[in-house]
Amino acid sequence: MDDLRIELNRQAGTSLVEQIVEAIGKSISEGRLYSGARLPSWRDLSAQLGVARGTVKSAYERLIDEQLLVARGAAGTFVADQLPIAHRADTSDLRGPLPEFYQHPFGDPAMVFQVGIPAQDVFPYKVWSRIASRAAREAAMASVSYPDPRGEPALRAEIAAYLSVARGLVCSPAQVIVTSGYAGALGLILHALDLKGATAWTEEPGYPMTRTALSMAGIEPVPVSVDEQGLDVDDGLARAPNAALAMVTASQQAPLGVTLSLARRHQLLEWAARRGSWIIEDDYLSELQLIGRAAPALASQDSYGRVVHIGTFSKTVSPGLRLGFIVVPPALANRVGDVAAALAPAASIASQRALGEFMRKGHYLRHLRRMKRTYTARRSSLQRALKTSAADEAMAGLALLLRLPDGTDDARIALNALEFGLAPAPLSTWYTDAVRARSGLLLGITNIPDEGLDACCNRLKQLAGIGQEHGI
Asked: Which of 53, 75, 337, 441 could pair with 46 as two cysteines, CB 3.0-4.6 Å apart?
């Protein structure tokens, strides 16, 4: 049959059956094999192609299952009269998720100045690999059953113990729910609180993804000013006195790095208790306070049961783990646990077991100490290269904030920098209100090179169009 063109390649990575199925299917879709056309018998086609009859039989059976062919007994095998309608989807407009936030491709290695990615050369890979391999074997050999949707009990116990020492937050493992990173934690708690139609205070400037998540959950984000004492509660009361939720990075504000003052903490907690509102504390980078001891978690000072505490291991271990956690007030624990079981159970049992063992044996705390030493040295190197002052520190000292003249298109500069392997984050995108937005570049310190740093800084200066007259 001239309309049936099948060329087999025995060196290809696909089976002969698959190649025959693909060739016949293509001939049908392109119209070279019309509806009702009779195909060669198994014997004839197998002889023509030089393959076993069983190979052709298997291919025909696959195509019959896909409703492209019909078998009519002794009469033979034919192209179906009524072929399945195939609509080829238009994918020309598809893109990666949230490109305004994720300008560099997913899966690519960390770039110079990229914010929010831990150092690639500090993590104890040998120790982790050994623990992870053992955990994977144990998970594979474990009895077949549904795991606790709140997370592995051993990991939740380690998280509770760590928080009591490092963050002053005394809680039971029953209050800890393991999540898929910060995004998973936020999605879970927003669904559990069920605040659709309500308003929420968000920091101005503040993490753009939080505002997006609130809007997707049907909650209106209201920007509240951040000053040298952190979130301005009075400004929040003036803008949205009936807000049902406040989002806050209390220990180290992202991106400005200020700590929420004690007076503001008390004011915020009393507001939540009085209004029956909730506070979600994003404990961003608190583990990596480079100078002195980190301020206590806001949840540790909550006597009203209104604070939900979110933490992750993305900045300290790896974002690839996609592991975070929520600590909820006791009165909310059952509700959040039920929602986790129904909609977002904790995943990757092997990774959870590995992380629990990593913490139990003290490797996590030792790793944090090493990170702090390394990051302190790298921050100093970047300050020397840029000739900035310590006042430009941001986000717990893990980024330097390079301020630019108001009106500078920092987003364009950041986008152009990607072509040179540099990934600074524009400050303006952290603002909701364009009128109040300030221009600047957040420069992550975690993955700066030991050699060539001066060249990276000089390139950044050229892209920003600034020099010594602007303090760098």
From this structure: 53
